[in-house]
Design brief:
By secondary structure, this protein is an alpha+beta fold. It has five domains: 148 residues; 71 residues, no CATH class; 80 residues, Immunoglobulins (Immunoglobulin-like); 101 residues, Immunoglobulins (Immunoglobulin-like, Sandwich); 124 residues, Sandwich (Immunoglobulin-like), CATH 2.60.40. Helices cover 26% and strands 37% of the residues. Strands 24, 25, 26, 27, 28, 29, 30, 31 and 32 form a nine-stranded mixed beta sheet that branches. Strands 7-13-12-9-10 form a five-stranded mixed beta sheet, with no helix packed on it. Strand 9 and strand 10 form a beta hairpin. The longest helix is centred in the first third of the chain and has 46 residues.
Length: 591
Amino acid sequence: MFFTFGAEKKAAKALNYAEEKLAEAKAMAEKNKTEPLERANQKYQGYLNLANQKTQEAKEQGKDVEELAVLLTEVTLKHQDVLVRVFEQIPEEAKAGIKKAIEISSKGSEQAVEAVEGPEKKEELLLKMQEMKMRMEYQILELEERLKAAEERIKELEEKLRKEAPFSVALKPTEVPAIGVPPEPPKKCIGEGETGSIFGYDICCPGLTKIANSWSTDNECIAPTDGSFICSYCGNGVCGKGENVCNCPQDCKIVKNLPPVIDDLQAPSQLRVKEEGIWTIRAHDPEGGPLTYSVDWGEYLPIVKEMAPPEKIIQTATFSHTYTRAGTYTIRFTVTDDHQQKAETSVTVVVIPEEVEKFIKVISPNGGESWQEGNTYKILWNSKGVKAVDIVYNRAKGWTVVTNYPAEKGEYLWTPVGIVKQYEGFVGKDLSKVDLKISIFDSENLSIFDESDDYFSIVESGVVASTVSIPDATVYSGKTVTLPISIAGVTKLGAATIWLSYDKDVVTVDSVADGNMGTVIYAIYNDEGVTKMTWFDPYGKTGDYIFANVTLRAATAVDLSYILDLNVKEFVDTSFVPITPTVIDGTFKVE
């Protein structure tokens, strides 16, 4: 609630009390307790009347009550929606009480909407009211039809019994209540403190008089307009059962009840999004009564309530809450005693964005590759929570490939030039290749980084370099594609063992076929995300070849991608001298 003074505040409080009594009426209906249900209905009506009355007073005083009037209308419509659903589920005996609560709420909506000034909002609310009215009328009509059918069935059975009976039988008429027909006069009078109705021909027992069925809340006398009364000994000088300062002021003196006192509030000043916060509030009632705690979390959530143990003088309530959006929230706590006296306090919490785990993972080159100067290669990585990266090929010297490069791209095309000469000047001798590791850093936080798992080679330009490669592929979900694994620039290659690694959630291998080098022995392990291939030729191969043709199947999910990672386990010539090839991985994307 946001109304903090005068009639507006009283209207807001009355609406809050009405919601409490509605919840009580719902609970009593579900338990088929008709008398407590009737009492709750009376209180609900009284508080709704007061809320509308105070809203009208504020309007007559020239105050802007548009927000309050809309709130009253929408809340009572929600009440009706709840009541209609309860009406559909509860026993027949309790339906009359809920029907009455629906009528009370409907009347409250009609009163509240009159104070709405905005034509568009008013029209919207009136349409909602009409829809709710039609729904309620349908449910009530259905109930009446069931009762009528039951009455007709009973009459049929009685008539059948009369015809089939071997002798005359005097049957007592079956008592079936008719909707809208006043009940018969009660057989018993109404006792002290009990409630009766002028519409039910109720009478008080001898010596008792009728007084208003009213009560006091926040120094306001509230009474329902349903014709109910209380039987009492009002006027005997004793404030007896059912009597109070509103309906029997001559016997019931006004005793000032002190409001609760809030002793302590422990609360966090800052939280992260999705982090649970704990608030503990301690309070006491000067008269030693029980307290009810409520909290408004400042984000339009329903009010949460807790009843503290009444036997304790100092009472404590603990609340927990999690915010889903960043911002500054003002949390309002209200402590209420059993006389509806209140104490309020508030506290502010700053909610900052959720902490995001940051990481960088180097994918390629990741060890064993051989790249030739002058050619262009992909440096690949995965990252999370990182805006930009610095790519370095010598951490000690700080020799960089690129700085402040967008991390989300996940790849950078690098053409190494002059790297071998640079290292020759560093080590002071001639080199044909150098072994390196790529390091990738968060540009804003250098403590977040990753590097190649092992060394790869940069081969000097002009030195013939063998290559092992697989191309990129983009495939529709669930479809297949066949990609060649190529070997180029080899001399007397005698044996090769190559593993193809992949993410099984993105792609799997259907089959492997020989290329133009001869027979390839293979094993497919899709559960592990790897396919292993081996080839051997004692006479050797020189030139460029297709090692194998691999048929890949895309996953059923879309917008996925992963590296087709070639891992050269063995690559030797006919004399079993190792050859270090340049390895060019592919990328597999599912659309």
